[in-house]
Ras-related protein RABA5c-like
Amino acid sequence: DEESGGGEEYLFKIVIIGDSAVGKSNLLSRYARNEFNMHSKATIGVEFQTQVLEIDGKEVKAQIWDTAGQERFRAVTSAYYRGAVGALVVYDISRRSTFDSITRWLEELNTHSDTTVARMLVGNKCDLDNIRAVSIEEGTSLAEAEGLFFMETSALDSTNVKKAFEIVIREIYSNVS
Ligand code: GDP
Ligand code: MG
């Protein structure tokens, strides 16, 4: 594609999954708009946000999808996963049950994907260290066992948010380029 005059362009679909209220929507709004909402309700309307990066002098568009709150009903549809080449699989470090759900989310992701998906395990809300219910070591070993990248983030104070998305985007790029 020569439209930009810069040669190839890339479009990557990335999905964010994990239990309700782990901070998926806020991770996306922090990354895409540098916004955080303390009282965010289930996402209404917007299906995805697009971020444009330059890697190796090439334009890379990351189309990052957020659920509309369907995860509360365990009803994330196959349309949501279709074509995804990257995923952030998110739990809340202050709620054990959200970490216990990760295996199920990984299974669901596997079921719905027919290509290699760059996957990052994300322990969000690391600002809540004082009420932590999942240790960093537990996150690290699950990630190692499942072959995932791992990072603890905070959408509230911005810790590692950009890093988490960009590691996934760069991994996808290296898978396809
Ligand atoms: P989603 O259901 O996974 O999309 O979660 P939301 O993004 O809607 O966040 C659920 C709640 O957790 C909201 O009250 C957010 O303000 C809060 N939240 C999200 N990320 C963080 C974080 O990193 N730290 C803290 N302390 N709260 C967060
Ligand atoms: Mg949400």
Q: What stands out?
A: Residues 26 and 36 are 6 Å apart (CA to CA). The helical segments are 24-33, 78-81, 96-100, 102-112, 136-146, 161-176. The mean pLDDT is 91.
